[in-house]
């Protein structure tokens, strides 16, 4: 099984968005409907969702006008209003406004082996089962000679990805006591600008610091020469460097000591700490050359605990049916993604989609 993919031919932001929106019209509408169902289950009214979408679009336009234009283009191509596509891009901010926590989420591993060898990375992408058809692989040129490939959701401008400058990003959600109800710059747009503009961890961190946010996330930036987990929250931005052996692991709680004082998700759902312990216990395998071996090192179902490889419980409410929808490695040297549809327990050497 593979995810749908699309390569843009347009380079002007609004035209590029319109091309994508027209090609993925049904997928964008379905993704929006899935989020509207999630927000409604969490108690949001249609009016609240629209107000949040409009506010997120306003904040996006103030920080990166060209990205707001691209959102408008996607809306035009998909037959939607710009605020509706902004809702998809601001889903993290809307969930923060609704104070929605999650028992499952993503786990990321980056190992820098040194001696001129390329970084070894892998992450699980956990999300809700009713949104399993949302992902799409998208390739485009941010500017002449600067290509980007991203694993994202239909209508969202970016998520996990690589660029031809040799930089890649992984993506995990966080929650902080400073998260607020007034949407700031969507964190997915921060990932997009990093992919579009950055070639180093330092440049990526500077872009993150330039945005006023209302929700928290960690964008782990990696290049051939370094890596850093860029923890982003309304309380500030911190960069967590690799530890001994070039190992940099992240789940869904803050690692920076100052930001960790405001930790929310781990305090409510401590399974994130168990997932990080699993990664630490398998750091040697996670540094292996073969992406299949790295993915299998992630394998932990931990019944009743904190699985790295999650499977949904259909008896739970809509917003609690967590599932590992993708397993992803970055090849920053070749500027490509290695994507498996599903969790590590289903990975074999032949299930990777190279994009």
Automatic annotation (TrEMBL):
Instruction: Report if keyword Acyltransferase is assigned.
Output: yes
Which residues does the UniProt record annotate as the domain Peptidase C45 hydrolase?
Answer: 123-285
Q: Which domain of life is it from?
A: Bacteria
Q: Name one GO molecular function term.
A: acyltransferase activity
Matching Pfam families, A to Z?
AAT
NCBIfam families to which the protein is assigned, alphabetical = C45_proenzyme (NF040521)
Q: Under which name does UniProt file this protein?
A: C45 family autoproteolytic acyltransferase/hydrolase
